[in-house]
Write a structure and sequence with these properties.
membrane; DUF420; Four Helix Bundle (Hemerythrin (Met), subunit A); transmembrane; Putative membrane protein; transmembrane helix
Length: 190
């Protein structure tokens, strides 16, 4: 079964819809009483490391393709996709088990009081802007990455290049803002 002749638009569309829907649902589900055998509080740092590595791989991928190193370009992109899948699985695990962390919740009581808001000031707006754009673009990037990869595996280079010009900056933004959001909220984890 050759990828070149396969129409995978419907499966990609389904995956692209199911992932954000499942992630959204998990935020409204009650937290189960599971104990995974390790301290899940390490996972946000792990997510930031995965996002950092993905951003570095994306820069390397761009460098490689601009220098006509196609094999290195493919390898870095495949690794970036694998890291993104690991991130997604770990992210879902963490958010299905961990209590919600609120930005500016200095005393970790789950309530952001007026004094806490005043203490962090206008940086809250920067944080929420980055978080909102990160979340929206993280959902949007899924079909772009999948279609970009599909076009590459189908050896449809003109269409691959066309969609990659959109995919790369969005994916890079999502990876980088994932790290920035982690750095900004990390003081409020309990």
């Amino acid at each position: 079964m050759e990828l070149k002749n396969r129409n995978l638009n419907v499966p990609i569309a389904i995956v692209s819809i199911v992932i954000p829907v499942l992630v959204a649902i998990l935020f409204y589900m009650p937290k189960p009483e599971l104990h995974p055998g390790f301290d899940i509080r390490i996972l946000p740092l792990f997510h930031a490391i995965l996002n950092s590595a993905t951003a570095v791989l994306l820069v390397a991928s761009l460098y490689f393709i601009k220098n006509k190193q196609v094999k290195a370009h493919k390898i870095t992109n495949i690794i970036a996709v694998v890291l993104s899948i690991i991130f997604l699985l770990s992210y879902v695990t963490y958010h299905s088990l961990a209590p919600e962390t609120k930005f500016a919740d200095l005393n970790h009581n789950g309530i952001v009081e007026a004094t806490e808001k005043a203490a962090v000031g206008g940086i809250r707006y920067v944080y929420y802007f980055l978080l909102l754009t990160h979340i929206v673009l993280a959902a949007i990037i899924v079909p772009f990455v999948l279609f970009t990869l599909l076009r590459a595996f189908q050896n449809d280079i003109p269409r691959h290049r066309k969609i990659a010009r959109i995919t790369w900056p969005i994916w890079f933004y999502v990876a980088v803002t994932g790290v920035v959001v982690y750095i900004m909220i990390s003081p409020y984890y309990h």
